Amino acid sequence: MQAKWISTIVTIAMISMTAIAGVTNTAHAQSDEVAVDRRLPSSQTEIKMSLSPLVKQTAPAVVNIYTKKVVSERQRTPFFNDPFFKQFFGDRFNGAFGAPRQRVERSLGSGVIVSSDGTVVTNHHVIDGASEIRVVLHDNREFDADLVGSDERTDLAVLKLRAVERELPAIPFGDSDAVEVGDLVLAIGNPFGVGQTVTSGIVSALARAGVTGQDYQSFIQTDAAINPGNSGGALVDIDGKLIGVNSAIFTKSGGSNGIGFAVPANMVKVVMRGLISGDLRRPWLGAAGQAVTADLAASLELDRPHGVLINKVRDGSPADRGDLRSGDVVIAVNGLPVDNPNELKFRIATLELDGKAELSVLRRGVETKLAMPLEVAPELPARDESIIDGTNPFSGTKIANMNPALADELGVDTLTQGVMILAVARDSLARRTRLQAGDYIVEVNGEPIDSVARLKEVVRAGERGRDWKIAVKRDGKILTGEFTL
Predict the structure, then answer these.
(1) Is 124 a residue of the active site?
(2) Which CATH number fits domain 287-373: 2.30.42.10, 2.60.40.10, 2.40.280.10, 3.40.1000.10?
(3) Contacts of 244 (CB under 8 A, 6+ apart)
(4) The predicted structure's pLDDT at residue 412
(5) 155 noted as active-site residue
(6) Does 43 participate in catalysis according to the annotation?
(7) What CA–CA distances, in Å, run from 346 to 27, 263, 282?
(8) Which of 124, 125, 151, 317 is catalytic?
(9) Is the pTM of this model over 0.85?
(10) CATH code given to domain 386-484
(11) Catalytic residue among 231, 256, 317, 360
């Protein structure tokens, strides 16, 4: 879809005023400590200013990414949808007579060159499962690319272009924590495969959560048009710096509705360093809480609803050793405000390990500062991953002791404990008893289960008979069942 300069966009462009003029020279002459001069245009000359110098500076570093993925599928027989055959054979009919075949899926997306040696940042979903990755630059040069690493939890990936013989244009990182609602931004990418496109808008909101399935969510929201194919492209500010990687849109039609989301640059930097080094680890908090609502704010005698009310702290965790307590309200991390658990988790995850974070906390209405160590989630107790076989309701499951490190990997509450089912094999007894991945095994034949070792003991004893009574926790609810095998 081609971008059109309509009156509303022209009005938005007015906000750029003198900060855009001479952007290639003046913006880089300013130090990072100098605040951006935000004001309305003061003359007709300023209104007529163009964003083209900014586009010329940044667009060459935004690339198109073409991927190829080989997918295996089974051919369906002509009779597969016939109700008569499905009544007797179901899916097995197709499996027995359908021959497997392979087909090639092709997809496209965008990426950003962040280093002149050919390091490219894009979205995980752009390259997920790709067997071949081809990158096309703004000047039509083409490169094969290797996948350095990918992180599904933040929807980010890092590529390295092959056979780079000379320095490539790159966009420097900006400080996404300095971004404010109303700032002018450009979104650059390759929507619908029509070629590189630039759209402009403003930052509509910050710290947006609940947008995608990723568990580290604190998106920058923009009304700059983002469409399919823009994923992995650049969101840049008026200084020509990368403040975000475009990741998702809110849409019912498949096109832009003026609600787009980008992963903040500060998170991109942390993930990129971890993927390049091969050691992507994040600090963990070791506490759980909830957003402060109006009713909670009134009961806590706060002047307004803000912060995260802590309701549980794990013994020995960084939060515990930093003296964070149940009932505290965390309002900021290193001076940056937090208003919900996702934002608190995001702020902690963007910090460097082995340092300390300063938590601003309201305790009984009085603000205090806490120094919390920044450490990786521990493997305690040992996860002891095991596969259960035999004649029992758990046969065909892969189980493990839940610990903070495993919980962090799975994106679940790091305070949870117990034995979790990680996977259930197809056509297994566990599948027939309707056990699911994510279930916590609470009790078997009246015996409480607190470890993988204990479950194995109880299962061995239970196999002497045929009757089973089990209890599992699923989505916070306890479910019980009785089975005869």
Answers:
(1) no
(2) 2.30.42.10
(3) 176, 219, 220, 234, 235, 262, 263, 264, 265, 268
(4) 85
(5) yes
(6) no
(7) 29, 11, 10
(8) 125
(9) no
(10) 2.30.42.10
(11) 231
